[in-house]
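Subject: sequence -> structure tokens, single chain

Hey, anyone have a minute? Need the predicted structure for the following. Not urgent.
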Amino acid sequence: MRTHFFIAALFLFPSRGKAQLTLPKVFGDSMVLQRDIAIPVWGTSSTGSQVTGQLGTVHATAKTGKDGKWMLRFPRFTAGGPYTLTIAEQGKPGTAIVLKGILIGDVWVASGQSNMELEVQQAADARREIEKAGFPQIRLLKVEQDKKLTPQADIRAGKWKVCDSASVKSFSAVGYFFARKLHGDQHVPIGIIQSTWGGTPVEAWTSREMLLTSPITKAKTLSNDTLKFDREDFIKDSLSWVRIWDIVYNPQNNANKIFPAVEYNDADWTPIEMPRVLKDFGIGYYEGMVWLRKKISLPESFAGKALTINLGHPEMNYSLYVNGQEVCKNIWNSNATHAFTIPAGLVKSGENTIAIRVAMLWGGGGLNLPADDLYLTDGSSKISLAGKWLYKKDLETAFPKILNYQYYPTVLFNAMINPLIPYGIKGFIWYQGEANAPAAYDYRTLFPMLIKDWRQRWQQDNVPFLFVQLANFMKTKPLPGESEWAELREAQTMTLSLPNTGMACIIDIGEANDIHPKNKQEAGRRLALAANKLVYKQNLISSGPLYKSFQRQGNRIRINFTNTGAGLSTKDGKEVTGFAIAGNDHTFYWAKALIEGDHVIVSADSVPEPVAVRYAWADNPECNLVNSEKLPAVPFRTDTWKGITQK
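Reply:
Had a minute. Here:
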């Protein structure tokens, strides 16, 4: 009865203006509001009008300012629900906004680039995960991608959804698996707000004001001032991507009939040794369609048999042809593996022609896997496909020029983060860094800048900020060396010096030939471990061994760790791998490493007077040190020698 009288009373006051009562799209049916804080709800209305809200049985009021904005603050709620939220402007019958099915729990903002964006339906064991994704107390909001030159008050689009098999498919896999683990551990509703864009640098997610404080980003940020939001390039950029995907999915000018054909003359094509990434061969950073061809002689025993061809990972979008006929088409990792059956009718003894049409996007393209995994087989014997291939670009319609404005400083903060502020949250989860690896040294400054920026704007003190360290990726190198990705990981580890931060190390679950490792379940679980330890104050080991200090002991170096749990061991039960050691000449050699309790003793016959040790210091290191929780040791180095990304 009290509720009915309250709502009725809202409409008894005379109208004072024409402005419509609005709420930002971050508010909606089925949302989760943050428990244990003064809950902010805001919007716009007539200047000077009184706005009244009711959440459950609790009331709040606010007066609209001269700018047409108002802010309600509801008192602290404990976890629970569902509740109804009613917002109305006094004196304007029929203007009430009513949102239903609201839960009170913990809200996390999930942001970053493609590894946070990667969807549940693209992750490992996707079908099973989707089928069992019925969690009515987990709620998901996916912010539609947008870019703007000035801070926005509202997101372009987005709607809260109850987590089920339909809504979870296209949602962030890391975000979902993180939420599922937390919900199971904490037994409270969990809301995830996903704001992600693949391939983007940290600068795009940081505010203009913060970027202008650093000489690293000041000049480039000021260059945005020469742009205009309404210029045609913004529209052309969107239309260009439509055209690009049309080219990727539909071979141009009968290319699929001409270039895979057995009789096609490829004498002017360029030889290339496979496996490798095409850009590393000398093609450079190229975006467009590239064709690969290889002629291979098959024995009589293969004729008329269905064969299996293993291609590794050419790219996310490619087609395979054998003797002129299409065998498969892969679109955005639609195939769980990259092994395909060649129908028996296409196989003949003697010379056979294999052709691959591959979309080179974001610097990818090529047959990027160990040579032993590139082959044809009839089930009993293999024929290697490694070695000489031929390739040619510019055979089809060129991709239109892409301006990629989403890479520009601050544009994603303006459109996809600023509109969320100050929605009540428990914390942030972040997976990004690949785009900043070429300038990893600068990330030591830029990543903490973003964290400080967001915290200052949310005004929730040092709100927890949890992040995923870059996984292992690319070819494993035979000798110790330098690595941009190792330096980026180091910058991420250094960020742990900020208060209330946590890191999930996933140096053991990456994939050599895929920048998007599919085991997002474990990435989400490790983030949740960090949350359970840091935020929910559980007594547990949430991280792998973390380098603490070292002492030189003659021709050996002793490494001391924290987060060892009940002791150090190796993941596979074998000898410790991943350590390298150097003397004053800065030349590193693989080292012998012995575990002694919470310490590792490192030495090498080639280095009688060692001064520095590195562990897992590579793009894709072979490393196996873990603690008693089987969490991997965090990559590190004891030296401070100048890296390859330090200017």
